[in-house]
Amino acid sequence: MGLADSSKSVPSRPRVGFVSLGCPKNLVDSEVMMGLLDRAGAEMTSDVNAAEILVVNTCSFIDAAKQESVDAILEMAQHKTAGTARKLIVAGCLVERYRDEIRKNIPEVDAVVGTGELEQILAAAGLSSPAPQITEPSPFTILTGAQAAASTGARPEGDLREQQGRFSRNEWDGAEAQLPQYLYDHTTPRLLATKKASAYIKIAEGCDHPCSFCVIPNLRGKFRSRRFESVITEAESLVAQGVREITLIGQDTTCYGEDMGLKDGLAQLLDRLAVIPGLVWLRFLYAYPNKITGKLLETIAKHENIAKYLDVPLQHASGPVLKSMKRGANAEIFLKTVAKVRETVPGIALRTSFIVGFPGETEQDFETLCNFVREAKFDWLGVFGYSDEDGSKAFSLGEKVPQRVIESRKRKLMTIQKSISKKAKAAWVGRALDVLVEGESEETPLLWEGRTQFHAPEIDGTVYINDFGPFDELVAGRFYRCEITEAHDYDVVARVISESSASISG
């Protein structure tokens, strides 16, 4: 089960320290493992020097993420050698890719736990699993027919990709042949690691898309959705605990329910979640461009508490590059999609991300991308340099773009976006918006930080609050009505006007 023997025992109620790297999906995996350990009697600690067991949940998406994961493992290995830690466990995507190499090259590692083995964290930590706690779904969520079915089916696209070798690990020395199949549900314990008012819910796992630059399907397995009623029940439970913002996540949330026979499954799910009393903001990450249906957009527009925010990672705008990426479409098609989104949901914030330097990307391809960014005017944009990942289809492509060219293109595209963002944020000045206050700024105690519905957690700009208005102090996790008084390239400054009606009613 991915475990290695260890001669070091741990106390009956050990203190466990977690290092969670990578995306929100990985963070939810960490929360599940912490929940399982907590239920088995372990005690979580944020003090690495006090931990008897150290867990590093790794990312392996691109080279930089892999290096960060290796560095974290080596740092925790030093704590084990010199400190109080008796066990070091490595979990996550890096394990799926380099299981044997981790064991061989880092002898301080006592156990490895893959993305489909989260429940094995107990055996890895030397703890036994308590009797499962059965939680009945809320009567509000009971469904029948295809909607109530477990996600034991598969999408035709996924079956086709499997036949084409999409999920093959044959070239990965030491990787297990069996793909991960695990997916937590509403009965699985979780310890939230997010800020007080916000939480993620993973509604699906895995991915069936054929993108040639990506190895996530090989790391996470085929696409699989959670039961409809399980997601609703978990959301109700989180709101009952004080969560006011829920972000639905998955590698492709817009495919949600297709393996259960649902049409517009995400739109149906949003419809049901939006009426949960006390839920102030609801959003989802990420949207695949050709899965943005009219029904989905109408659902976003219909509910006041669904954030007017859409993250659509387009990856490029040049037709030839997108074809080589196995993505399809082009700048013209994407501009029509952007126009449709903005027409259906006025004022929506759009975020996207692009890869520059993909093998074969010419100067003309890059200029097509630059012109597209100028015309589309995204609210938020991320740019990544191409990372040549062994095991991806793109790895075998010729015409690799030199690293210096990749870096130059990254800088140019972000310069274009900075100008767009600066003008857009200047237009915010004078607007009154609801802001979720997250706490004192790390930069200075003179400022507090928050987000509007147009900011997703951790990835977009920041609202800095320098004037508390009628309040002597603010409360982290509450919503306040704020006036934007100042704008910068990506961030804005605001003053508090009053407590938001959303916070009062929530």
Describe it for me?
There is one protein chain. The protein has 506 residues and is α/β, with parallel strands linked by helices. 32% of the residues lie in helices and 19% in strands. It has helices spanning 24-39, 63-82, 93-105, 121-125, 156-163, 216-220, 228-240, 265-273, 294-302, 319-324, 331-344, 363-376, 403-426, 501-505; strands at residues 15-20, 43-44, 53-58, 87-92, 111-113, 198-202, 204-205, 224-225, 245-249, 281-285, 309-311, 349-356, 380-385, 432-440, 448-451, 463-467, 479-487, 492-499. Helix 8 (265-273) runs parallel beside helix 9 (294-302) and helix 12 (363-376) runs parallel beside helix 13. The longest helix is centred in the last third of the chain and has 24 residues, at 403-426. The two termini are 44 Å apart.
In short:
By secondary structure, the chain is an alpha/beta fold. It has helices at residues 24-39, 63-82, 93-105, 121-125, 156-163, 216-220, 228-240, 265-273, 294-302, 319-324, 331-344, 363-376, 403-426, 501-505, and strands at 15-20, 43-44, 53-58, 87-92, 111-113, 198-202, 204-205, 224-225, 245-249, 281-285, 309-311, 349-356, 380-385, 432-440, 448-451, 463-467, 479-487, 492-499.
Q: Order the strands across the largest sheet as they lie in space.
A: 2-1-3-4-5
Low-pLDDT residue spans: 1-7, 133-152
Strand fraction: 15-25%
Rg over CA atoms, rounded to whole Å, is 23 Å
Measure the end-to-end span: 44 Å
Category from helices, strands and their pairing:
alpha/beta
